[in-house]
Specification:
Oligomer: single chain
CATH topology of the largest domain: D-Maltodextrin-Binding Protein, domain 2
CATH class of the largest domain: Alpha Beta
CATH architecture of the largest domain: 3-Layer(aba) Sandwich
Number of helices: 11
Order of helices and strands: HHHEEHHEHEHEEEHEHEHEEEH
Helix content: 40-55%
Strand content: 15-25%
Number of domains: 3
Structural class: alpha/beta
Number of strands: 12
Shape: rod-shaped
Length: about 325
C-alpha cells in the first residue's frame, strides 16, 4: 500500500510548494500569492503544477476571476494550512516560549507581618526587574510555611526563625530592634532606668503562643525569673497596636512593625537590652538548588538594598 502513495520529488524543500498553494487558496490569485511571498508569478505557477503532478490531483479551478480549491484542494488546504502557519510562526513562538521559560513563577511563603512590613519594597523592586515572573505570596505562620517548603509548594520562606530544623537552612539578612509599645502618656514611656520587672507589672498584649514573638518574650521573662501577665492574645500587629492605643495593655514588637502612621497614637521605647533583636531572612531546603527566580529575589533581600528608618528616629530617641 505504501508504494501507491505519491512520492514528492521536492522532499528536501516541500514547504515552498505548500506555502505557495496555501497563499493561492487564501488569496484566490497566483499574482497575489506571488506578491505575498515576494516571488515571481511563474515561480508560484511552477510550484503549483509540481504539487498537482506529485499528488495526482487537480487542486484549483477557476470561478470567475478567482482560483478556488477543488474538493481535493480543500482537503489539502485543511491539512497544509496549520503546518505552513506553524513553520512560518515558529521563530516568534520560539522566542515567546523562551521568554516564558525565563520568566517562570516564584512562590514565597511568609507570615502576615513579613508580607506587610518587610516585603513591599522588595516585591516592588522585583516586579520592576522581573515583570514577567508570576509572583505569589502565601500568607502563613512559620510552621505552615516550612511545611509548604518541604512539599515543594513554595520556593522560599521569608521570615524569622528561632529553632532551625536539620533539613532546612536559614540565612538571616535583617535585624530589627525590639520595642516596647504603650498608650500615649503611659508611665513607662518616660520612666528612668526601665527594668524588666517594670514591664512585667503591666498586662501584655501578645500574638498567639504558637508564634515566635510569644515564645521569645516568655523565654526572656523565664530566664530572668521575672513574673509577667498576658492581658490579651490576638493575631496581627496592626490589631495589637490598635488595642495598645486604646489602653488595653502594652506590647513588645519588632521595630519593623512600626510605621509613620503609628506616630502620635502610641508611645515607644527600645527594650533591646532585654530582648534580642529579631532576625528576618530566607529559609530553604538543604540540598535543593534555588531557581533563577528565587536567586533573583534573594539578591533583593540583601540588607544594603533595604534601608529602613525606624519609628523612633527623628523625634523618638532610644532610652
Amino acid at each position: 500500500m505504501a508504494d501507491s502513495l505519491p512520492r514528492f520529488a521536492y522532499k528536501a524543500d516541500r514547504l515552498k510548494p505548500l506555502r505557495a498553494f496555501c497563499q493561492t487558496a487564501r488569496l484566490g490569485s497566483v499574482s497575489r500569492a506571488a506578491e505575498a511571498l515576494f516571488v515571481s508569478q511563474p515561480a508560484i505557477t511552477l510550484q503549483l503544477q509540481a504539487l498537482e503532478r506529485e499528488l495526482g490531483q487537480k487542486l484549483f479551478e477557476r470561478s470567475g476571476r478567482r482560483l478556488v480549491p477543488t474538493r481535493a484542494g480543500e482537503a489539502l488546504y485543511e491539512l497544509a494550512r496549520p503546518l505552513v502557519e506553524g513553520i512560518d510562526t515558529l521563530p516568534a513562538a520560539f522566542q515567546n516560549q523562551l521568554k516564558g521559560m525565563d520568566a517562570g513563577e516564584l512562590n514565597i511563603a511568609a507570615n502576615s507581618s513579613t508580607i506587610l512590613y518587610l516585603l513591599p519594597r522588595i516585591v516592588e523592586r522585583f516586579r520592576e526587574h522581573h515583570p514577567d515572573v508570576r509572583l505569589s505570596l502565601h500568607n502563613t505562620v512559620s510552621a505552615d510555611g516550612t511545611d509548604l517548603l518541604r512539599s515543594d509548594a513554595v520556593d522560599l520562606v521569608v521570615g524569622s526563625m528561632q529553632d532551625v530544623p536539620g533539613d532546612l537552612s536559614y540565612a538571616p539578612l535583617h535585624r530589627f530592634e525590639q520595642m516596647l509599645v504603650m498608650p500615649v502618656g503611659h508611665p513607662l514611656a518616660d520612666k528612668p532606668d526601665l527594668s524588666l520587672a517594670d514591664i512585667g507589672q503591666h498586662g501584655l498584649i501578645l500574638p498567639p503562643k504558637r508564634q515566635i514573638t510569644w515564645r521569645l518574650v516568655d523565654l526572656v521573662f523565664q530566664q530572668n525569673r521575672v513574673p509577667y501577665t498576658v492581658a490579651l492574645e490576638v493575631g496581627g500587629w496592626e490589631v495589637i497596636k490598635q488595642y495598645v492605643a486604646m489602653g488595653m495593655g502594652i506590647s513588645i514588637l519588632s521595630s519593623i512593625c512600626l510605621t509613620e502612621a503609628d506616630r502620635g497614637r502610641i508611645a515607644t521605647r527600645s527594650v533591646g537590652r532585654f530582648f534580642p533583636d529579631r532576625s528576618y531572612g530566607v529559609v530553604m531546603r538543604k540540598g535543593k538548588l534555588p531557581s533563577a527566580q528565587a536567586r533573583a529575589f534573594m539578591d533583593l533581600i540583601q540588607p544594603d538594598l533595604f534601608v529602613r528608618r525606624d519609628y523612633y528616629d527623628s523625634g523618638h530617641s532610644e532610652r
